[in-house]
Design a protein that fits this description.
By secondary structure, the chain is of the alpha/beta class. Helix content is about 60%, strand content about 10%.
Length: about 450
């Protein structure tokens, strides 16, 4: 860089660092979508409820408690990887305003800081308590509090399709690598396994375009036998040398043992086992049958959501499959606990229209879009119009929000590595979309007052 360019850069930086110009940049920041999200979030209440604080001793963290929570919202607004988020934070003054940090000429180089903060907050996440805080702050900008819509969706984890051969090979590869390190550490000879031979055979199989049953069956049998030998050797090694490992090691080994048991049963009987494990890294994931034409099975968290005036809240989140039809009563109770208003209109699809739920909504005088049973009454035309409006609201606004969150708020594939961080990822993705919607409503009101 020549001397002229250096002097220009120094001049521009002095221009940016002036207080009056920073105020101008901050005013511009508040007018952006990110600024609207910033205005819509009750920062002090969130910090207090999540219980994020500075360290009592030692050096202070780079991000303040507010900045750590803000970084999670920013992650879903920017919709990018942790590394790219830090790179953009280094160069984007709006992002720095949002995260309550001023870097100046300094640069962040620790790309793992995002995942460290995610792990810290995930341990303290209490979804119901935080959603009450958010609703209480947003309540003046939410209308039609007695009208709710409800539906369930699946937020998929980033995962390869779990065939038995892939799953068994991953288990063999990981356990063999761990045993090799352990044997070297304690000075014991590694057992003979012909690992390299099976590695070549698996790689050859994985490159085949057509994986016929004639090829799959002998490979699966061999991998089951090899994994069984490795599990036995690992057990004997730990017992003989009284070895102690981290809790994560024991959890992974326990998952691998369960995978071996399940896959052996599946190989022998041909019946898919209950609570089938689909990943040794994410042992908490289960197949969720959705019945869609494109994706009959999904792997991730299933979430039952309720929507009040376009703002979504999590009623129930589980990594195990559940029937959302049984959650209607608890959804109504959650909506009423948030709004303090009796629910009068409810939109839900046909899976919620069980006899038990019909009796509940009739008893509580709640209007729904459930298809009527039996003979139609004389005044059914008016009722039919109401049902059509409720269905339209659910099918467009609620189901449309699922696609919007997945495409634009980083919820299409959850890339978090643990059960708690996946829950945190989903929570912040949903409420980043909510905060922007509320922020725009606040801005519209200000514009009307100014006009």
């Amino acid at each position: 860089m020549n001397l002229q360019r250096i002097s220009e850069f120094q001049h521009s930086f002095s221009f940016l660092s002036a207080t009056e110009n920073l105020d101008a940049f901050y005013t511009r920041f508040l007018e952006s979508d990110l600024g609207k999200i910033h205005l819509a979030i009750p920062w002090e209440s969130l910090v207090e409820n999540i219980n994020v604080s500075e360290k009592a001793m030692g050096s202070k963290m780079l991000f303040s408690p507010k900045g750590r929570i803000a970084l999670m919202f920013l992650k879903h607004y920017a919709c990018c990887s942790d590394k790219k988020l830090i790179e953009q934070l280094n160069s984007n003054i709006d992002y720095q305003f949002f995260c309550d940090i001023h870097l100046g000429l300094h640069r962040l180089t620790n790309y793992k800081i995002v995942s460290q903060i995610r792990c810290e907050l995930a341990d303290k996440l209490r979804i119901d308590a935080l959603e009450k805080v958010l609703y209480n702050h947003w309540s003046p900008h939410i209308d039609s509090k007695g009208q709710i819509t409800v539906d369930a969706t699946c937020y998929e984890s980033e995962l390869r399709y779990p065939t038995p051969q892939k799953l068994l090979w991953e288990a063999v590869d990981w356990l063999y690598g761990q045993l090799k390190k352990t044997c070297k550490l304690v000075g014991v000879k590694m057992m003979r396994t012909k690992f390299l031979k099976w590695k070549k055979r698996y790689l050859g199989f994985s490159k085949m375009r057509r994986k016929t049953n004639k090829k799959r069956k002998p490979l699966t049998r061999s991998l089951l036998h090899l994994l069984g030998k490795l599990i036995t050797f690992e057990k004997e090694l730990c017992a003989t040398h009284n070895l102690k490992f981290r809790a994560t090691y024991y959890r992974r080994v326990a998952t691998i043992k369960k995978v071996h048991t399940q896959q052996q049963e599946y190989f022998d009987t041909g019946v898919s086992p209950k609570n089938r494990i689909v990943s040794i890294q994410k042992g908490y994931l289960r197949p969720i049958v959705r019945g869609k034409e494109v994706k009959p099975v999904e792997f991730g968290a299933k979430v039952n959501k309720l929507q009040i005036d376009g703002i979504n809240f999590i009623e129930h989140l589980s990594f195990n499959a559940f029937n959302e039809g049984t959650r209607l009563k608890s959804t109504v109770y959650k909506a009423q606990s948030l709004t303090k208003v009796k629910t009068k209109i409810l939109g839900a699809d046909a899976i919620y229209a069980t006899n038990k739920n019909r009796n509940f909504v009739t008893k509580n005088n709640i209007k729904t879009d459930f298809k009527r049973k039996g003979k139609l009454p004389k005044d059914y035309k008016e009722e039919k119009k109401l049902k059509a409006l409720i269905t339209k609201e659910r099918a467009t606004r609620l189901e449309g929000s699922f696609g919007k969150e997945k495409e634009h708020y980083h919820l299409k594939k959850i890339k978090a590595k643990t059960k708690l961080t996946e829950k945190l990822w989903i929570f912040f993705g949903i409420h980043t979309a909510n905060a922007l919607a509320i922020g725009r409503r606040i801005q519209d009101i200000k514009s009307q007052i100014a006009a």
